[in-house]
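Illustration: EfeO-type cupredoxin-like domain-containing protein.
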Amino acid sequence: MRFPAAHRAIRSAGLCIGAGLLAACAAVSPGTDSVPTHHIQIQNGVTPQRLDVHVGDEIRWHNLRSEPVKISLLSHLSGSGVSCQTGFSSFGSLDDTATIPPNGYVSLCFSQAGSIQYNVWLNLDDPLRSMTPTARIVVSTRPT
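Result:
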């Protein structure tokens, strides 16, 4: 079946618009931005124990266990000290603890240089005996 020229033109325009929308979506899809992401793995402990990052980098704590774990930052963070967060609740101020579900993650981006210490509890029912050694994230300004 042969379509009239006007129909072909409309169909071509629709395909071009659709292709343009797909390209635009691909350009802003998660994981394609230029923010460096650093990964901390939680299994029978925390790896790495010390992580050096720059202001604005994303830090992701991945729970690779089959049960939830709890992370607690040892210094209180204000909303101005964090430029992005996933999994930490904020009701007026940023909560310094988060529960990470099995195979899930939480993340933070620090907006100021400094040193952040934290602990992870591997067994929520036994917090006294399941706390990992204190780990540290050292945040520095990006060299110019």
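Reading the tokens back as a structure: DSSP finds one helix and ten strands in the chain.
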